[in-house]
Design brief:
seven-stranded mixed β-sheet, Rossmann fold, globular, 7 strands
Length: 252
């Protein structure tokens, strides 16, 4: 596994919600793109573990001559992880995101990385992007931002485009059926944020901004939908508080 990554364009400390402000829905705009590496590191428990493991998983399941997709690639952390898990030739890697600000910065990160495999970046909605002959696809904290009524449609298209023996890596924030467990996991997540320097005001305002944008579901809901889409053997390979990463396999 590659141990080094070159630094991309400069980014700043996340202070977007540090001052009292009118409520508005969260958007992946330029202000978020500038601070996104700091934001996600301090907000998502286990993110710094998940990213390098995407490289390991990609290396295990990439198939010669196939396409690999990072759907909702943001600044390209998981794209680069997939790239370093793929052979230098014989495969194609595609990163897709509908935020121009994210794609613009992602291009810089890709250019600074020293792996020879070319990466194609598409600035478009993952619900519309073409997916063909895939062996590894990644939805890394992306599906939770897709309209729940269209999630099965997206996963079905991914499954239909995936080669037998291929895999989908799906990372998500989840919710829990048990109210007590939900409260416990939420409290621990907030404590994680406080430990990383976020104030109560920042935690509260970001939670409010995400309420109508990020719609979490239970593990059971994810598993049933993945199976309905055509995947099998859904496996949780990582969990920290209310954040998980799963593998879903296309049957041979």
């Amino acid at each position: 596994m590659s141990q080094q990554r070159k630094h991309g364009p400069s980014h700043r400390l996340d202070t977007i919600y540090a001052t009292d402000q009118p409520r508005q829905d969260f958007r992946f705009d330029e202000s978020v793109a500038r601070v996104f590496p700091d934001m996600i590191r301090r907000s998502v428990p286990g993110y710094t573990t998940i990213i390098p493991m995407i490289e390991v998983i990609t290396e295990q399941y990439v198939q010669t001559g196939s396409h690999c997709y990072d759907l909702g690639c943001s600044l390209g952390a998981s794209t680069l992880a997939m790239r370093h898990g793929m052979p230098a030739s014989g495969c194609t890697l595609v990163g897709v995101d509908n935020s121009p600000a994210m794609i613009d910065r992602c291009e810089h990160y890709i250019a600074l990385d020293d792996h020879p495999l070319p990466v194609t970046l598409r600035c478009e909605d993952i619900l519309d992007t073409d997916i063909v002959d895939a062996s590894v696809s990644t939805l890394n904290f992306t599906l939770q931002f897709v309209d729940p009524g269209r999630r099965l449609e997206l996963l079905t298209r991914i499954a239909e485009a995936t080669r037998p023996g291929g895999v989908l890596i799906l990372s998500e924030k989840i919710r829990f059926d048990c109210e007590r467990e939900q409260e416990t996991q939420t409290r621990l997540h907030h404590e994680f944020k406080r430990a990383n320097g976020y104030s109560d005001l920042e935690i509260s305002q970001k939670r409010s901004a995400l309420e109508q944008v990020l719609i979490p579901e239970t593990l059971g809901e994810h598993t049933r939908r993945l199976e309905a889409a055509g995947f099998r053997d859904v496996t949780v390979w990582y969990q920290c508080f209310n954040f998980v990463s799963m593998l879903a396999f296309k049957p041979d």
